[in-house]
Every structure is written in structure tokens, then in C-alpha cells.
Amino acid sequence: EKGGFRSFMDKEIHDQPHAVADTLLGRTDDKGRLVLDEIHVDEAVLRQVDKIIVVACGTAAYAGQVAKYAIEHWCRIPVEVELAHEFRYRDPIVDRRTLVVAVSQSGETMDTLMAVRHAREQGATVLAIVNTHGSTIPRESDAVLYTHAGPEVAVASTKAFLAQITAAYLLGLYLAQLRGTKFPDEIAEVLTELRAIPAKIQTVLDGADRVRQIAHWMADTSSVLFLGRHVGYPVAMEGALKLKELAYIHAEGFAAGELKHGPIALIEPGQPVFVVVPSPRGRDSLHSKVISNIQEIRARGARTLVIAEEGDEAVTPFADETFYVPQTPVLLAPLVSVVPLQLFAMELATAKGLDVDQPRNLAKSVTVE
Ligand code: M6R
């Protein structure tokens, strides 16, 4: 069943071009307009939405954080992302004009299910982005947009994450189409870019050997930090989570802008730090700020492992290792930039002789609170 791969995780990471492509498939008409009739929510309700709250746990919550940047930009609707277990014990401000988006691979996560119930009781419309058909969360939601990642067996989530981000982009573009916050041409352009993503993921996967080599050199590492900014911030968090889960290594993700507000104190000679660099073709200032962050930590002895866009030569003087990923529009970049981090975590765990499919202490679906 592993299809010749060393583990389910390895297979699922390599399945990611399909997970993204299949999630996009069949969701546009011949004029290139998005068709999401499958969600069966009255368009009038969606036009009136004045706030979106994403509720999810773990990796699914990071997918929500990525979606926030895109949806706010495309739709001009405020988006909050909240861990499901925190949401339900607050007194969240939710009403009929709130769209709650519950993101879950399994569709069975108890904390997320409870958040769904909590939101519906207060009159919100709940849309589930879920991978597993027939699971509980979509049954208890008003609507469902399925991710088509296929079954995910490894406990740590990889391909479901990419499919969740893809589905959330589709939702954002659909809302933009419905509410007229983007021109049809602009939406079509993003869809074209999205369709180009699977081939870009494949390019990253084709470079897996180099990631393996570096991970093997780092098998004795006891702590790794991850920095990112804008959509690279949730990518950094996800990179850290994968490393904790798979390799049992202390790992932390930070927003790069927070560095000087505390985390830079952690930098000592030899400390490995992954930095997810935003595209230089995006907002200029963002790119140069992250480059200065790399300089700052390098000056204090950090070993810098940089994820950058192909052609970005500004990073090379300060990077001990550079992983180039294909050029991608800023908002869509997480779909490619997270892949080297997933590979790194898997390879480091493998170098340590660990079972990457069944990490200790974890369950695939957390059906208790
Ligand atoms: O099935 P779900 O997407 O609701 O699961 C949510 C989290 O439990 C899950 O993403 C968890 O963080 C994974 N172990 C991440 O690899």
C-alpha cells in the first residue's frame, strides 16, 4: 500500500501534487468561473457575511492562518483564526452574519466538533473543510467543502494540509466572485496560478535528496527554530510542528518580526534556524526585512537554512544552506514553501531511526477533548 515508498508519510508527501490538483478539479465551469454549488448555502447568506472565524486544531489551524491572508485580501472580510478548544471556552462574538469555517482532515476532532456546535447554537453558518467523507463534522455543519487529498494514513498531516489550504483559497475566491470584490479576470488568474502549483510541488520533491543529506548531517540537533513572515509565518509554525511530531526535537516557529522582541536571545553559535523568505517580487519591504533578520541571526552565530524563491540571490551571502522553490505568487507560496520543511522533518526522523508514520503519544484523530 505504500506504493514503493519507505513509509506512508513519504508516500503522502509525494502525493501532494495530486492532493492539490484533485482539490481544484471540477470546481470551475467552462468560462473559468468558480462553481461551488456543492456547499448548498444560500448565496444571499454568503453575501451578508461580515466576519469569518476559522476554527481548527494543529496543522489544520495553520492552514486556516494561511487562508486568513488570502481571504482578507481577496474578499475584504475580517478573518479570525482560532484554536477550536480556545474558541469554545471563550464568549466569542458570533451571530447570523458570521461564517465559521471548521477545518479538519479527519472530520472527527472532538474540539473542532464542539466549536462547530457552539457556533451553530449562536446562529452562525458553519462550513466544514474536511477530507474524510461521512465523518461527523460535515454532518453537523451547514455545508461542506471536501478536500480531495485521499486517505491520509500517517499520523502527522502533510497532504491534507496542502489540500486544506487549496480548498480555503477556493472558498475565498468564491466569496470574492459572489461579492464582487475581485474582477472575474483576477479570479481566473489566481485559478490559473493555482493549477500550476502541482508541477511546482513536484519540482521541490525532485530535490528531496539534498534535504535528506542535510537532515542526516543534522541528526544530533537538539533544537531548531523556524522564522517566517506574512504567509510564511504559519509555514514556519507548521515546519516546527512537523519536526516536534516526527523527530521529537524541540522546535519553535516565530513570526520573523518578533525576533527582536525576545526570541533572538535564543540564538547562540551553531543554532539551526530555518527562514522562510517571502518573494522579492511581492512587497519589497517584507523581503528585505526578512533578509535583515537572517543577517542579524547569522551575526550571532546561527546556522541559517533558508527557503527562498528561485532567482532570489539576495539570500545567498547569509545562508548556510538554501533550498530554492519555484516562483509562486505571494499568497499561494505556502503550498510550495512548506514542502522542504515536511521533507526535512521526515528525513531527520528517519536518520534517527524513528517510525515516521506512528510517532509516539499521538493519535491520528483526537476524538477526546
Ligand atoms: O483531523 P484534524 O485535521 O481535525 O486534526 C487536527 C490535528 O489534530 C492535526 O492536524 C494534528 O495537529 C496533526 N498531528 C498534525 O500533524
UniProtKB/TrEMBL annotation:
One of its GO terms (biological process) is fructose 6-phosphate metabolic process. The active site is at K364 (for fru-6p isomerization activity). It is found in: Cytoplasm. Transmembrane segments: none annotated. Residues 41-181, 214-359 form the SIS domain. It catalyses: D-fructose 6-phosphate + L-glutamine = D-glucosamine 6-phosphate + L-glutamate. Its EC number is 2.6.1.16. One of its GO terms (molecular function) is glutamine-fructose-6-phosphate transaminase (isomerizing) activity. It comes from the Bacteria. Signal peptide: none annotated. Keywords: Aminotransferase, Cytoplasm, Glutamine amidotransferase, Repeat, Transferase. GO terms for cellular component: cytosol. Catalyzes the first step in hexosamine metabolism, converting fructose-6P into glucosamine-6P using glutamine as a nitrogen source. Homodimer. This is Glutamine--fructose-6-phosphate aminotransferase [isomerizing]. The gene is glmS. The chain holds residues 253 to 621 of 621 of the full protein.
